[in-house]
Amino acid sequence: MDPAILEFLHRSGQVQDKQAWAIEPLTGGVASDIWKVTTNETSFVVKKALASLRVAQDWKAPVTRNASEVEWMLEAAKVAPNAVPRILAHDPSLGAFAMTYFNPSENPVWKEELRNGRVDVTFARRLGGVVAAIHAATAHSQDIGRRFANDEVFHSIRLEPYLEATAQVHPDLAAPLLALSRDVMNTKTALVHGDVSPKNILIGQDGPIILDAECAWYGDPCFDLAFCLNHLLLKCIWRRQDAAELLHSFEALVKSYLTGVTWEPAIALEARAARLLPALLLARVDGKSPVEYITTSTDKDFVRQFARNLIQSPPATLPDVTRAWAEELCK
Length: 331
Prior knowledge:
Helix 4 packs parallel to helix 9, helix 6 crosses helix 10 and helix 8 crosses helix 10. The strands form three sheets. The protein has a five-stranded antiparallel β-sheet, with helices on both faces. Strands 6-9 form a two-stranded antiparallel sheet. Strands 7-8 form a two-stranded antiparallel sheet. By secondary structure, the chain is of the alpha+beta class. Strand 2 and strand 3 form a beta hairpin.
């Protein structure tokens, strides 16, 4: 156990010497050490950012992202208080914070629900609305832009390992992939979570609960939309028997999100998301962070061919992507 974490727990008043308590590591994170702390009165989570991520390739990221994660949760709570954990304590110099713990038996991880064939279209619709509301509340804010000017972190955690690393694997696509990376980086519009993935979303009693905002950044909100939609497409391969409902979830999330776009023409944001989505598909096969559930060469080649075609001929809308994806799945 990290002695600095023990000292943080005592100094912040989360545990006391005369109080019985226990700490245990939680699994699942590649970017942080995470522990569950249990006292006589309550349970909570402690999270500490890692400088080197737990992936096969060399992938480093500044631990200052921990402070931005806390700030993202505090900002999101102003818009959707039930959609984020409550921050209990924070030490920016240590790169650690404590937050509320959600019992998985009552708040299951969305990814696990999808894994088990429980596809809830209504939940996807609610998620789209929450994400859009956070973007709308923070759009064109000079204060948010100043506080979340995390270009270095976002580039090192998202653009380099996903788009730019994939460009090295597919040199014939390097020009559009690197141009896409630059365009995303240069669009400064709203507060972006950066990892809106089913593994980071709980199905709470009052709707979605969004975790793991380590990539928080003031930038292009289309990234959050495309990043989440990418997972719904990939899970059609993982759970082919649920593909129809997963695509319905995709459509519901898109419609709900775009309805909430008030800061720019929705058609413009959708066009950027449609252009980004195929690149993210390819990145989850050939980038630094491939999804663990697409393992066969046949499935990987399916994703590669589909994504390559759309990178070379970008779709205009998100329904263009789902129509093409559904057609390919049926072949």
